[in-house]
Amino acid sequence: MAPDAHRTPLAPPAAGAELWSAVDDYMNGLLVPEDEALLNARRASEDAGLPPIAVTPNQGKLLALFARMVSARSILELGTLGAYSTIWLARALPEDGWLVTLEANPRFAEVARANIARAGLSERVLLRVGEGLHTLPELVAEEAGPFDMIFVDADKKNNPGYLQWSLKLSRPGTLIVVDNVVRDGRILDPAEYRPDGADPDIAGIRRFFQLLAAEPRVDASAIQMVGAKGHDGFALAIVRADASA
Ligand code: DHB
Ligand code: MG
Question: pLDDT (tens digit, 9 = 90+) per residue, 37-52?
């Protein structure tokens, strides 16, 4: 038996969500073992009834690799949830690095704060509770930026505003990563994204894409992903060297 055979189903599931999930399990088993702090964060979030929408282990590690690729010393995260991605990102920072994470839901923030403490990251992570569109202007007023990396993973309907505020907290070279920009392809459905449409989050993602496309201060792309969380994607943008805020 090959050393990794136990991780692979005898026959792969039929193409589709179950297969994407099995492939995630395979890759995570080999490349992305979760330690106690990450497992605890996931379990505590589940026990507290938080929605099961945190990034997957391989996505968390990808975010950590992004942070290291840009040698991030400061990271801003919008949407803490239970701090699962926060832990991945904060661990990618050097000794003197710091991370600010914003969470609108006080109950989520309480769970997150305990998870951050259990991961031994309380000194490096500043968790601020409040609506992003309220706390982001505070950060600008406090001159908290510029951040080296910004991860946008909050309520999607406000993504256009989050992009604008993120740019105010950036410098040339800042990496902006935005989660959930595909949503099972629903971003292509006018019934969802029209101003009077079914889903303000999808409308927010569409307006975010339009802003990004028209934004001269960044170079951007977006990529679809499949996996344990279905079909979704990341948008990535780097603030240009000649950008002026
Ligand atoms: C949802 C939000 C997320 O950030 C995510 O990664 C998946 C789903 C949601 O609100 O449904
Ligand atoms: Mg997300």
Answer: 999 999 999 999 999 9
> Distance, CA 152 to ligand 2 centroid (Å)?
8
pTM: 0.96
How is residue 22 written in tokens?
A: 């099995």
Q: What tens digit of pLDDT does each residue of 166-182 get?
A: 999 999 999 999 999 99
Strand partners, 238: 175, 219
| Pocket-testing residue among 156, 157, 158, ligand 1, by greatest number of atoms within 8 A of Cβ | 156
CB 232 within 8 Å of CB 202: no
Q: For 177, phi and psi rounded to 5 degrees?
A: -115, 130
Q: Which residues line ligand 1 (CB under 6 A)?
A: 53, 153, 179-180
CA dihedral 51, 53, 54, 55 (to 10 degrees): 170
Q: Cβ distance 45 to 105 under 8 Å?
A: no
Polymer length in residues for the chain: 245
Q: 154: CA distance to ligand 1 center in Å?
A: 8
